[in-house]
Every structure is written in C-alpha cells, then in structure tokens.
Amino acid sequence: MSTHINAPAGAIAENILLPGDPLRAKFIAENFLENPKLYNEVRGMYGYTGTYKGVPVSVQGTGMGQPSLSIYATELFKDYGVQKAIRVGTCGAISEELELRDTVLVNSACSDSCLLNQRFGALHFAPTADFYMVKTADSVAQKMGIRYTIGSVASSDFFYDINSNWKKWKEYG
Question: What is the mean pLDDT of each run of 10 residues along the chain (173 residues)?
C-alpha cells in the first residue's frame, strides 16, 4: 500500500496502462481485460488488474497533468514493482497532418514543466520511449490497418497557454 494507491502487494501487474481519466481506466478494464479486479479507488482514481490474451495487465487512472501523473507513476514503480508503463488517452495537436481520432505513437516528449527542473536540476532530460515498445506498437498498428503517426509530443503544465509556447514547439516539429 502507498499513499495514493490502496492495493495489496502483488495486486498490480508489471505492465500498466495509464489514462488520466479514472473513468477511462474503468472503461478499459471492463472492455479489454479479462477478469478485471478493482484494486484502487482512493480519491476516485480507479485501478484494475486483469489479463489481456493471458498476460497480466493493470490500468490506473492518474488524474490531470504532470504533477498528478508523477505521483502515481512514482508509487507504481517504487512501491508496486511496475516495469513498463504506457500512457493512453486523449491529447490535442498542433500538427496540420493529424486528424481527429488519429493515433500517435510517441517516441519522445518535450515539456515546459518545472517538474523536470525539480528532478534533474540543470540537466536537460529528454524522456524517450523504449524502442522495442514503439517498434512493436508500429508493427501491430500496421497489421491492424490503424492510421497513425510516430513522433515527438510536447506536454505543458498549462492547459490554456498564455505564453504561446506551442508556437515554438510547432516551429520545431
């Protein structure tokens, strides 16, 4: 058990999906996992574990924004032995090539969050996805005929960006 996740030892799989919306976590568990079991509902942040094609998988809501995600990710890796986490959910786009409901396989991320400064100080950390996971997702998406793009994303602590940082991110792709 951790501060924000009320799960007993062994209740969370090594592989986990992380939607921000707790109701999306519930939807994923009920529609894609076999035998999902609720392990967390602290603060209404649902977490489930079940199996997908025989493989144990968990799904945990993380709330909105990087600070909230940071809390859940830290506890999942530190206290529950999670090894692979995949963020799933919705996002906005600043690319004219993307259309509504397109899938983006993310290979790296930029951010204006001060969380990076607090964690890494003067170092410029570049969060990058595991190559094998991106390659596997690419292969599966091709086989399924899913329209997708592979690329970098930008994540901000501001929903309404008064500084228009998105324009600079767009300029640099």
Answer: 92 97 98 98 96 98 91 96 92 84 90 83 87 95 94 82 80 83
| Run of H or E residues at 56 | strand 55-60
Q: Which position has the token pair 């592989």?
A: 15
pLDDT at position 29: 98
Residue 51 Cα to chain centre, angstroms: 19
- What residue segments make up the domains of the chain, in order of their start? 1-90, 91-173
From CA 60, how far away is CA 11, in angstroms rounded?
12
The terminus-to-terminus CA distance of the chain in angstroms comes to 41
Do 51 and 92 contact (CB within 8 A), yes or no?
no
Q: Taking the domain 1-90, which CATH number applies?
A: 3.40.50.1580
Beta bridge mates, 15: 84
The CA-based dihedral angle spanning residues 96, 100, 135, 168, taken in that order and rounded to the nearest 10 degrees: 40
Burial class of residue 12 (count of CB atoms within 10 Å of its CB; 0-12, 13-18, 19+)? buried
Looking only at the bridges linking them, the beta strands covering 47-52 and 34-40 are: antiparallel
Q: What is the C-alpha separation between 148 and 145, in angstroms, rounded? A: 9
The 10 Å Cβ neighbour count of residue 8 is 9
